[in-house]
Amino acid sequence: MTARIAPAEPPFAAGIQASLDGLMRGKPPLRLFTTLARDPRLFQKFFAGGLLDRGHLSLRQREIVIARTTALCKSEYEWGVHIALFASHAGFDEAQVASLAAGQAHDACWADEDRLLLVLCDMLHAECDVDDALWRSLQSAFSDEAILELLMLAGFYRTVSYLTNALRLPAEPGTPGFAS
């Protein structure tokens, strides 16, 4: 696949390079990041919206929401990046990785607490809303701040999926695809 917009080439502006260095920790920057680096304003706005820091969710909770949202949005690029970088740290087994890509919330591989997050992602994707029953379930499991973070996380990665899909970004080296 050929990207629709070519990524920026180094040397990058000092602020962009500093951000890339902090994010990538010595690894080459991702295509999404270097494509956004074409415009320093857009680059900074994108990273200002990121939620990969320590917030109100565990790494596992965060990655379930990211992987499920990007899979529902058919962003194989972003799904693959997160599976490659975080699946083992989040404790996902092979069945869970496959389920995140194409399974159902009721798949036997999920515990109830994980299943709740999958149902949230599925409902947000289908309805752009959360019904009262699911909201009550979320409130019994998460703080209000964590629920806000879950909603923002799903929305942000829907935006990321728009970017990666519309830009036709090719997979990063070493990242799995949905069929992997």
Main sheet, how many strands, which sense, barrel? Answer: none
| CATH level-two architecture of the largest domain | Up-down Bundle
Secondary-structure-derived class: mainly alpha
Enumerate the spans where pLDDT stays under 50 for 5 or more consecutive residues: none
Helical segment count: 9
**Through-space gap between termini:** 18 Å
Q: Report helical residue fraction.
A: 55-70%
The averaged pLDDT comes out at 95
Report the CATH topology name of the largest domain: AhpD-like
Along the chain, the helix and strand elements come as HHHHHHHHH
Name of the top-level CATH class of the largest domain: Mainly Alpha
Query: Any idea how many domains?
Result: 2
CATH superfamily of the largest domain: AhpD-like
How many runs of DSSP E, i.e. beta strands? 0
Rg calc:
17 Å
Please state roughly what percent of the residues sit in beta strands, choosing from under 5%, 5-15%, 15-25%, 25-35%, 35-45% or over 45%: under 5%
Morphology call: globular
InterPro entries: AhpD-like, CMD-like
Domain Carboxymuconolactone decarboxylase-like: 46-118
Organism: Variovorax ginsengisoli
Pfam families: CMD (PF02627)
How would you describe this structure in keywords?
single chain, 180 residues, mainly alpha, AhpD-like, 0% strand
Write a short abstract of this structure.
With 180 residues, the protein is mainly alpha-helical.
